[in-house]
Amino acid sequence: MEFISGNETLHNKQTERKQLSTTAKLLLACTGGIGLGITIVCGSFVAPAFRKICLPYVPATTEQIGNVLKFLPKNNSSKLLDIGSGDGRIVIAAAKHGLHAEGVELNPWLVYFSRLSAFRMGVSKQTRFFCKDLWKFNIKSYNYVVIFGVEQMMKDIEKKLVAEATDAKVIACRFPMPHLKPESIIEDGVNTVWFYDLNKK
Ligand SMILES: C[S@@+](CC[C@H](N)C(=O)[O-])C[C@H]1O[C@@H](n2cnc3c(N)ncnc32)[C@H](O)[C@@H]1O
Hints:
The protein is of the alpha/beta class. It has 2 domains: about 5-50; about 60-200, Vaccinia Virus protein VP39 (Rossmann fold, 3-Layer(aba) Sandwich). It is built from 5 helices and 7 strands. A 7-stranded mixed beta sheet has the order 3-2-1-4-5-7-6, covered by helices on one side. S-adenosylmethionine binds near residues 60 and 107.
């Protein structure tokens, strides 16, 4: 028969408590870390709401992408830019169509996701994604510019396009340019797309 002294019982209880508090600390650190991670990722998606012009992440629909592609030449060396490229779906679709396509996007998570999607789709070499502010990004070197924006930004983006992308063709999704005259329109409700040739303005 084993004899356990009072001192030994007290010591065992203290060790048990110490182990419990280490587990509690580990749990706290894990949940804290997960919480911080979620806050950082979500912050990038909420941040646009606090900017002067709120341009949230709303991905293009399949119909919208189909309408954009109708204005693009197939398999030529033209360079396309999607302004606010989101998860990269328009850039990837344009690259699969045969163009060299690039996107500029402020949300770093969407940029990482876009690069990964492009890799998975086998169009890494034909695509590039920049994690930059669209208002500070020069759009001079592009033949095609796609913009799926919000109504409040169209006046300013039109000014930027006219000043920088003098020879480009512009495809606007959902909202048209306020002053430019479109060459062509695909009327399709929320998936409507306007086509402009800045060379002919
Ligand atoms: C309406 S979504 C369009 C996404 C994509 N073009 C598509 O059609 O699927 C607009 C995107 O612009 C990004 N955005 C908002 N403000 C921006 C800024 N200042 N510079 C770059 N991207 C921005 C948002 O994060 C969002 O992903």
